[in-house]
Amino acid sequence: MVVADPAAPANAGRPAAPGEPARDGTQRVTAEVAAQAPPDWDAFVAARPDGSAYHRAAAVAIAQRVFGLPVYYASVRDPRGALRGVLPLVEQSSLAFGRFLVSVPYFTYGGILAEDDAAAASLAAAASSLARDRGARHVELRHRAAVAGLGLPERLDKVSLELALPSTEAALAKQLGSKLRSQIRRAEREGVEVRWGREDQVDEFYAVFARSMRDLGTPVYPRRFFRAVLAALPDTEIATVRLAGVVQACAVLVRHGDRIEVPWAAATPEGKRASANMRLYWELLRRAQAAGAAAFDFGRSSVDSGTYRFKLQWGAEPRQLHWHYWLPEGAALPQLNHANPKYALAVSVWQRLPLWCANLIGPAIAGKLP
Length: 370
What we know:
The structure is a single chain. By secondary structure, the protein is of the alpha+beta class. The protein has helices spanning 41-47, 57-60, 62-67, 117-134, 169-176, 178-189, 202-216, 223-232, 269-273, 276-290, 306-312, 341-351, 355-366; strands spanning 2-3, 31-34, 71-77, 83-94, 98-103, 113-114, 138-143, 154-155, 158-164, 193-197, 237-243, 246-256, 259-267, 295-302, 317-320, 322-326. The two termini are 25 Å apart.
């Protein structure tokens, strides 16, 4: 599928071929959409400062591998054939919310990566054309920063929280402050044990994470989702904090370039009382600092939520996220959040489910939610 330059005037005739001069002398650009990533996709992502681990071809394919969802790779090239921009898209659908495209679901980042405004606009046009072809109700493009020239409505209710990391562990401990250090030491007095691993930690991580998701009113991903993440992103690790041999806090740590992110973390009520969650985050920060990361990304939160305040106490700075939307004419922004009464009711009902029931039916639902 090829989508013509969205800026082309109505009387321009046929779409210009890639690199073909337009009537005004500028170079038109076209975006191509394919079911497989081109071979130079990952190299382009790695070279982009705004790229993320979730832009990688294997990470995009997790949606297909785990949930059987259609995935698409949109790309733009210059006249020499070199990539100028990429956009991964995943198609989801449900009875409650209809069909929609997301770049990309399950993760915070994954929107347009482009070298210039023309390439970005062409990729956005490709997404909207694909949405029309597929009968989608909207397209959600998740960006770490604003993308100029798209002309699309956006949501600004989400932020990521980031902490710049110093060059030494001592400096890291000092900048956390005495109160946090005291809470971390409390966990040490409880005799907690910290372990790092990958596939060997999935089952114990999942037991704590699934319970936390039920308590939040959110369907949990299937266990195989996290195994697929580990397979797609080889630098990913799992940390667990144990009390008397039982996991009470855990997290997944993902690295991309000089940034390390924790997209999923959870703690039991018992773990929180013993400050195991505080020890967990200290170990995550130590791991990131020792690995030479420049920044630690605590993940996304809604402003003023409990998780937002928890992350702020570590010295993290809010970074505005820009989620842009293509919508059919006259359509309103989707509300797949607590502002939607139906969504809020579903959360309330889910929190009341027995854990075994939530874990049984949650994985069948989670893949349909962005």
